[in-house]
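User: Second chain of the day. Same drill as before.
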Amino acid sequence: QVQLVESGGGLVQAGGSLRLSCTASGRTLSDYAMGWFRQAPGKEREFVAGISWNGGTTYYSDSVKGRFTISRDNAKNTMYLQMNSLKPEDAAVYYCAIDLGGTGYDFWGQGTQVTVSS
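Assistant: Same format as last time:
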C-alpha cells in the first residue's frame, strides 16, 4: 500500500514562493506518473501540474504555467512543486497524486494547506 505525504505548505505573502514536497512510502515512485492538484474552499479539486515517470515530460494548467515548476527525484522517492509569484487565488489545499494503474490518478495524499495573503 503506497502512502503519499505532502509537506511545505504554509502562509506566504502575495509574490512570494513556496516549495511543496510529496514523499512516498510503500512503493517506488519511479515507475509512475504523478501530479499535483489543489482545492480551494467551495471549489472543485483542479489539476495543477503533472510529470511523467522519469521527469521527461511536464505539463501545467494555464493558471500556473510560468510560475510553478514540477519536478521529481526518484532516488529520494519524492516529487516537488516549486511555486513562485504566488497570488491570493493560489490559496488552497494542495494534493499530490499518483497514477498507479496507468489510466489516471488513482491514489492521493492528505494534502497541505497553502495560504497567500494579499
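The mean pLDDT is 95.

User: Great, on to the next one.
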